[in-house]
Design brief:
8 helices, alpha/beta, Rossmann fold, Arc Repressor Mutant, subunit A, four-stranded antiparallel beta sheet, five-stranded parallel beta sheet
Length: about 230
């Protein structure tokens, strides 16, 4: 099977309590060029991540000691790496819970090897830093595009790689209406073009982090049923 672009030796932590799935994921990712570390429990995953921090993590929702959302929250306490949650549960509420905890993506089982590698590569691209990019200052917001940092009213605000990529896209198109599909394609890739709930969840998270009044947004405004624009 032909897989997506190679992982170039980047380290990926995979946590799943089913040995067969863990082995399969390990083979798929190694074939795609990734250095893979595996864990069967949340505790083991946290220990491995602490000893040698990975570039990304793939986490199953159901684990024996705590669920994947709780593991995501624990990793987010110190890391901005991309995190993809895997689950057999195709439920929008669970997806939103995972995204609110800091996951960058949510992949429902069963899925193909190509799709997993493509999503992982896309998440890593979103997290990549370009040292040539400038800092953008708009009112009380200061977005450093090279350091991937955000300051709001003088206070540092943590963004996940996907939240950063979404905010960067909106700010670069300041004043322009961005449709749901165009934002999804730009930030997540063409396979996400119809995943509006994913976009809504991330916009809601961004509003909580940058808006003085999230329920009455000043910056991220909505054009009902069409899309969003950065109006600051």
């Amino acid at each position: 099977m032909k897989l997506a672009s190679p992982g170039c030796g980047r380290r990926v932590l995979v946590c799943d309590d089913e040995p067969q799935i863990l082995r399969a994921l390990q083979i798929v990712l190694r074939d795609a060029g990734f250095d893979v570390a595996t864990a069967g429990t949340a505790k083991e995953a946290l220990d491995r991540a602490a000893v040698r921090p990975p570039d990304a993590a793939i986490v199953d929702l159901i684990l024996p000691d705590r669920d994947g959302v709780e593991l995501t929250e624990a990793l987010r306490e110190w890391s901005e790496m991309p995190i993809i949650l895997l689950s057999a549960i195709d439920d929008e509420a669970e997806k939103v819970r995972a995204l609110n905890a800091g996951a960058d993506d949510y992949l429902t089982k069963p899925f193909g090897a190509d799709e997993l590698v493509a999503r992982l590569n896309a998440a890593l691209r979103r997290a990549a830093r370009d040292p040539k990019e400038p800092t953008i200052v708009i009112d009380e917001l200061e977005l450093n595009l090279s350091a991937h940092t955000l300051v709001v009213s003088g206070e540092s605000v943590h963004l996940t790689p996907t939240e950063f990529a979404l905010l960067r896209t909106l700010i670069r198109n300041r004043g322009r209406l961005m449709t749901h599909a165009s934002l999804l394609r730009e930030v997540w890739g063409p396979t996400y073009a119809s995943d509006t709930p994913l976009l809504r969840a991330h916009v809601a998270n961004l509003r909580r982090k940058i808006e003085p009044e999230p329920s009455n947004p000043r910056y991220l405004t909505t054009d009902p049923r069409i899309g969003y624009r950065f109006a600051g």
